[in-house]
Structure formats: structure tokens, C-alpha cells
Specification:
Layout lengths: L4 E3 L1 H4 L7 E10 L6 E11 L4 E5 L6 H9 L6 E5 L8 H7 E4 L11 H11 L4 H14 L15 H13 L5 E5 L7 H17 L3 E6 L2 H4 L4 E6 L2 E3 L14
Parallel strand pairs: 1-3, 4-8, 4-9, 6-7, 7-8
Antiparallel strand pairs: 2-3, 2-5, 9-10
Helix pairs in contact: 4-5, 4-6, 5-6, 6-7
Amino acid sequence: MRAPDTVGAADVGETGTPLVRCENAARTYGSGPHAVVAVHGLSCEVPPGARIAVVGPSGSGKSTLLHLMAGLDRPTAGRVSHPGIGDEDAGGLARHIGVVFQGPSLLPALTAEENVALPLRIDGVADGEADSRARAALASLGLEALARRLPDELSAGQAQRVAVARVLARRPRLVLADEPTGQLDRETGRQVLSVLLGTAEELSATVLVTTHDPRIARELDLRWYMADGRLTQPADPGTGRREVRS
């Protein structure tokens, strides 16, 4: 039997209780001869303070792994836990884990500011503080002048930055970004990623980004490679660190 893929704090030189731990985690869709294994039994840890890129082609299992880590999906085998967060119910995880999806998914009837403030209000944040945090988050991404615009009045890059602001306004401990630049041109994508990483650093948030683009991956400190639902990491004998070759 093939040994499970293992990536962790020992591999990347980080210390502290991991925010996410996957133990032989697998996700299969369907059953019988038509079953599709999106993620094979893999083990990995996301240590606090890490900035990780999970790189791989479409269909490699990156999004499924991210959804498992976010608590948006459950493994069909193995276990995914959040020892560094400690709050395992879905609502608790949502307060500590922010997810940036491939598209902005903004509510069309709400302004940019209202889209950012809405999750805060759902969390029970008072209206005045929710509005203040929403404005601050938009300002940190250079969007203060666009706060009153509706989503269809924004460019693709502006809308994705609003989606990033919506996540960061909640001040999460862990940011999981699923191909956040995949629908943007190269320059806009780099700008969005730069702002995401910079603001997350100000919040002392850990960041994991999935991407198919090695150039985007180079903007992060650590690189994991995913193919066919498995994590693989050819070691760099010169540094001991493991990263994608391109």
C-alpha cells in the first residue's frame, strides 16, 4: 500500500500548534465504479505564520483540499482538525477562517461596503463597528472611493479586491484563497495577491493559496505541489526546503 503523503511543520521549519491538520484525509465523490477520488489519503499541517502556495493543474484536488481545510466539506476517510483554532463547529471555524473563492460572489443588490459589512453583521458585530471595519478594509485595498458602487459597476479586479476585503474585515487567523487570481489578467492578479498577502501580514494571519501558476506561487514563502489528489514535494538538497520546480 502506498504511504500517505505527509507535509508538515517539520518540513518547513515552522513551530507552534498547527492551525489545520489533515490525517490520512481523503475525499471521494460518488460510489462504486463511477466513484471519483478527488483527494487521496494525505497528511499535512498548516503551521501558524506560514504563507503556502499549493500548486497544481486543474483537477488535481487543490480546491477540494482547501474546502476540507475550511470546514466547507468533510473527508470521506481520515480526519481534518483545527488544533490551533480549537473551535470545531462550522460557525466557529467561519469566524476564524476566511475563504477567498475563484470569483468574487458579491451580492448584486448590495454596495461594495455593504457586501464587506454583511458577514460582520451575521457574526453579531454591532452596526457601527461593522461599517467602520468594512470601510477600513476597503481603504486598505485602495477601494474607499468605490465603497458605494454596486458589483456591476466594478471591474473584475476591483470586485475581487472587494471579496478579499470582505474576508479580511473579519480578521481571520487563517486565510484560504482558492485560485484568487485565476479570472484576472496577470498584472491585476499580482496586485490582488500582493494586497492580500500584505494585509494578511498586518493581521498576523496565516495564508494558503491554491494556484496553477508557478509565477504566482513564487510570491509565497512555501510551495507544495499537488497532482492526482496527492501532495508531492521534491526536496531541495541545498536548503532542505521543499518547493515546486518550474
